[in-house]
Every structure is written in C-alpha cells, then in structure tokens.
Amino acid sequence: MKLYKLLFFSFLLATLTSCTFTENIYINDNGSGKFSVDMDGSSLMQMAGDQLGSQVGADAKKDIDSTFTFKQLLAEKKDSIAKLSPEVQKELKKLENFVVTTKMSAEKKQFLMTLSTDFKSVNELQDILQTASTLQKLEGGATANPLGNGFGDNKSKLSYTYDGKKFTRKATIDQQKLTEKLNDSSADMSKMIFASSNYIVKYHFPKKIKKVSNPSALFSDDRKSITIQYSFTDYMENPDKLNFDVEFEK
C-alpha cells in the first residue's frame, strides 16, 4: 500500500470531523527561525479507524511514522511541472525546503501531520500557505497538498514582518475571489466541514512581549510566546480576522 493512498482517504474522512490546525513560528535573535503547520486529526482515527482499514487494506492498521521533503515530491512530478507556466514553477520551487512528517496509529487513535521549514527571515514566508495550494495544479494534484485539498486557498495574500520592535501578521483579502468562492455551490458544504475545526497560531519570540493587538491572545509565563485560537471558518472565510500586531519591550 502506498502512503499517499492512505493519506488521501484520511483527508476525505477528515473533512467529516473536527481537526485542529496550529500555525507555529519560532523566531531567533537574528531573525531566522522555523515555521510549521500542524494538523491534529486524531478525532478522525477515533471515529473512522475501522473504515480506514476496510478501504485501504490491512496495512492501514500498521503504525506510520514517515518523513518526506517537497524536494522529493517535486522531483517525482518533474514531468508534470515542466508543462506548467514559468510563474507556477517558480511558486512551486518555494516549497522545496518544506518537510512533511506524518504519525498515524489506529491503536493509539492518533493522526498527526506537520508541514515545516526553516527560514532566514520571516519575509521568506510571504504567501507560503497559498503557495502550497499551487500543488493542485500538478497531475493528481488534488491530493498533493499534505494538509488537504484547498488548504491555504482562502483568497487572501498573507504577509509577515518582523524588525525586532514589532511583528505583524496580515492577510489582505482579494474581495472578488472571495465573493466567487462564497457564491460557489460547495460553499454551504465547506461551512459544514469546517464548522467544528479550529485554527490556532502559536508564535515564539526572542524578546518579551509588551502588547498584542488581539485581546484574545494568551501569554506564556515568560511573555515571549502567544497563543490565539480562531475558528477554521474564520481562517477560510474571514482571514483578516487573524491579523494582529505584536510589540516588544525595549
């Protein structure tokens, strides 16, 4: 059994139950750091473990602990990529350094997936989640995005800035594209799918935080980290609700 087959079926089931997506950013003193998005679909395994086994065979009952890089995936898809426009090829190249880690256990009722990369500056992360949705342009691309078909495609442009004094997360909405999406016949289904899922941001900084523009932010004991929870519906339909500024102590 190929891992991709199991993951594809898992994502189909994941759309029918609640998942938690966590966006993590760790920033070091020199501005470098690590970015990751974690998907916890363990409730999927609790509800549909038996279905996984019947659909993809006995191998689905074996524990999975795998890691692969997008560089490997893109190499396998090089013929398909060659047929795409230079602009799309350039977007896909941004994903080369991303690593995907999957841990799945029917016995432990566990289904965890992490998409991660290191960066030299947060500026390297501009529109990175939207870039992941570009994978759907590949042959068989509907299952190429490890965090699920359509993830990151919330019709906005996401940017991060950090200068040591202030950090900003800002999503700028493309109103035309958003309206088209909301008017799509599948919009009601999407709302049902994401209604019980959450999107959490956890950001870790090298300096103590003075204030955050979002009043819902929770601080770590050392005031160097914040956690903010949103509904996944807001992430998809109102991405600007996830905008905020962080100011640091001198």
The count of strands amounts to 12
Strand fraction: 25-35%
Helix segment tally:
9
Mean pLDDT comes to: 79
What is the general shape?
A: globular
Helical percentage: 25-40%
Cα separation of the termini: 55 Å
- Looking across the biggest beta sheet, what order are the strands in? 3-4-5-2-1-8-11-10
Listing every helix as H and every strand as E from the N terminus to the C terminus, the arrangement reads HEEHEHHHEEHEEHHEEEEHE
Largest sheet: 8 strands, mixed
Count of the separate structural domains: 1
Radius of gyration: 19 Å
Q: Structural class of the helices, strands and pairings?
A: alpha+beta
Low-confidence stretches: none
Throw out a few tags for this protein:
single chain, 250 residues, alpha+beta, 8-stranded mixed sheet, 9 helices, 12 strands, 30% helix, Lipoprotein, signal
What does this protein structure show overall?
By secondary structure, the protein is of the alpha+beta class. It has one domain. The chain is built from 9 helices and 12 strands. It has helices spanning 3-14, 42-56, 70-76, 78-82, 86-93, 128-132, 175-182, 187-194, 232-237; strands at 20-27, 33-40, 64-69, 99-105, 110-119, 156-162, 166-173, 198-204, 209-212, 218-219, 225-231, 244-248. The strands form 2 sheets. It has an 8-stranded mixed β-sheet with strand order 3-4-5-2-1-8-11-10. Helix 1 (3-14) crosses helix 2 (42-56). It is globular, with a radius of gyration of 19 Å. The mean pLDDT is 79.
